[in-house]
Design brief:
By secondary structure, this protein is mainly α. It has one domain. The chain is built from eleven helices and two strands. A two-stranded antiparallel ribbon has the order 1-2. The longest helix is centred in the middle third of the chain and has 17 residues.
């Protein structure tokens, strides 16, 4: 599972946490280094313990490795639980056109909704890390240290992607690029309650009652076989799967 389980506490208000899987906690440059290492050492189809060891980490549950993997997936450079490289990663590593590499960097940044929103609102402005961190604290229920780490990763990532001018102003992203990533209208939500769209129900799977580890999802009361396969594939992508016996919660 991920670090969010160990950081959540049952309180009346949502507890602040030091970790989030919604934002990279390592920057784009570090994610690219990891992806490059995986590719050069032919680890795309290796087991996760083999990937971790091959990249110089003790286990897949070590925090530096785990967070780099999460960042690489958020940047859409890795596509599966076995560290398979995406087309975006290959466009960066082996560009087949003049602009493939720069476009891959842009798409990696703009593929993260929180980054795209910040880029839209900060066009032509300098990045204020404190303001960015405050926004992350409020939106993702992060502690100040956790939010500050995410803010620094954001600033470093947009610099790597070439979004900043020499004086530190955010101005290298065309308005069309921003609009293409933000302004597509979302699909309308289903009706709250009718025969075809019954209300969502909460389901909880206890993984370890002693440690309070669990999975909680909201879903319709029934799903089709094809939908179940999609859910299983999605979980395999979202969760970092480790071998039995490995610690599943990242440690320092």
């Amino acid at each position: 599972m991920n670090e969010t389980d160990s950081n959540k506490k049952p309180t009346g208000k949502q507890a602040l946490k030091d970790y989030t899987s919604d934002l990279p906690m390592f920057d784009l440059e570090e994610a690219l280094k990891l992806v490059t290492d995986i590719h050069e050492k032919a680890l795309e189809t290796a087991s996760m313990p083999e990937v971790a060891k091959g990249c110089g980490y003790a286990s897949p549950s070590s925090t530096p490795f785990y967070r780099r993997m999460v960042a690489a997936r958020l940047f859409k450079l890795l596509s599966s639980q076995r560290a398979e490289l995406t087309k975006l990663a290959l466009d960066y590593l082996k560009p087949d056109s003049e602009d493939a590499k720069s476009k891959a960097l842009t798409d990696s940044i703009m593929g993260i909704p929180a980054y795209a929103e910040l880029i839209q609102s900060h066009q032509g402005k300098r990045i204020n890390l404190e303001i960015v961190a405050n926004g992350f604290m409020r939106k993702f229920s992060l502690t100040k240290p956790g939010a500050s780490l995410c803010a620094r990763a954001f600033a470093s990532s947009i610099k790597t992607a070439g979004f900043l001018t020499p004086d530190g102003t955010l101005g290298a992203v065309s308005q069309r690029t921003v609009e293409n990533n933000l302004n597509d209208p979302p699909p309308p939500p289903p009706p709250l309650d009718d025969d075809k769209n019954p209300p969502l129900q909460g389901f909880t799977l206890i993984l370890d009652p002693k440690k309070g580890r669990k999975i909680v999802i909201q879903a319709p009361p029934s799903v089709s076989e094809s939908e179940l396969k999609r859910i299983q594939a999605w979980l395999g992508f979202q969760l970092l799967v480790v071998a039995d016996g490995e610690k599943s919660t990242p440690t320092e």
